[in-house]
Amino acid sequence: SLEFLYLGGNFITSIPPELAKLPSLKYLVLCDNKIQSIPPQLAQLHSLRSLSLHNNLLTYLPREILNLVHLEELSLRGNPLVVRFVRDLTYNPPSLQELAGRTVKTRNVPYAPSDLPESLVRYLSLASNCPNPKCGGVYFDSCVRQIKFVDFCGKYRLPLMHYLCSPECSSPFSSASQSSTSQSESDSEDEASVAAHRMQKVLLG
Fold first, then answer.
1. Are 131 and 162 in contact (CB under 8 A)?
2. Tens-digit pLDDT profile for residues 15-51
3. Which pick of 121, 123, 148, 156 has the fewest CB atoms within 10 Å?
């Protein structure tokens, strides 16, 4: 039944995913720490109305944050993502196992648990679909991390993390590395599903 949790100024370096098990939480204060990333599990805090993350070490926000449908206030000032946006991120080439797994998944190669070792069956079950609608591919461990800027309230653009299966899939999202004026048109289809009233206050400065 906890509704307010203040963890500011504690030199916290990571947010425990277990916080997502507080369904009644409305106000979460994590400011003035050393937090570098937000666990996607926080998107399960459907009652959350205020999230204070200012004065941390955040360089991006996970896309799942858009699922916080009742969030009204998001404080981000004093984070690297506010003063310098991360655009170019490294890509590690896929291993032979990943290449084989991608082929099995994308070409729908039939297999049964009796055909493969249990570890490979488990590995194949972990395939993630590439979000690029023009690709239709999958990835396992090797992916391209790319920042996409999403418009909130028509005034601020928040950097959200996307995971693509290869560098070639970055073209539909290339607006992330262009000026904000050219982004609006290419992003509009994605952002149309995000209601403007979901984020009433985005505190970036």
1. yes
2. 988 998 999 999 999 999 999 999 989 989 999 999 9
3. 121
**Does the domain spanning 4-93+143-162 belong to CATH 3.80.10.10?**
yes
How large is the C-alpha radius of gyration of the chain?
Answer: 19
- Report whether 163 contacts 37 (CB < 8 A): no
**171 is written with which tokens?**
């073209």
Q: Token pair of 140, please?
A: 């396992």
CB-based contact 168:46 (threshold 8 Å): no
Helix or strand (DSSP H, E) at 143: none
Token code pair at residue 184: 């609006």
Whole-angstrom distance, CA of residue 203 vs CA of residue 152: 11
**CA nearest neighbour of 43 among 60, 59, 21:** 21
Long-range contacts of 174-179 (CB under 8 A, 24+ apart): 175/148, 175/149, 176/87, 176/146, 176/147, 176/148, 176/149, 177/87, 177/88
pLDDT digits (tens, 9 = 90+) for 146-184: 666 666 555 556 667 777 888 777 644 443 333 333 343
Residue 138: phi, psi to the nearest 5?
-135, 165
Per-domain boundaries in the chain: 4-93+143-162
Residue 106: both structure tokens together = 């994308």
- Reading the block at residue 51, the tokens are 């999230």
Provide the CA 68 distance to its chain's centre, in angstroms: 13
